[in-house]
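Hi support team,

I've been running sequence recovery on a batch of backbones for a student project. Most finish fine, but this one hangs at about 90% for roughly twenty minutes before it completes. I'm not sure whether the input is malformed or the queue is just slow. I've pasted the structure tokens below so you can try to reproduce it. Let me know if you need the job ID as well.

Thanks,
M.K.
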């Protein structure tokens, strides 16, 4: 039973870490896109 709970905990932590990584990656990409858009507006 303890093994099952610890496995569940590890799975939950891995899933949370994965979602956090995806969110950071998405935010970084969105920031990069907005920076590019501002640069294009500045050139025009």
């Amino acid at each position: 039973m303890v093994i099952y709970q610890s496995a569940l905990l590890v799975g939950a932590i891995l899933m949370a870490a994965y979602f956090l990584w995806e969110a950071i990656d998405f935010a970084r990409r969105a920031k990069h896109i907005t920076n590019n858009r501002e640069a294009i507006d500045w050139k025009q």
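--
Follow-up from support: It reproduced on our side and the slowdown came from queue contention, not your input. The radius of gyration is 19 Å. No action needed from you.
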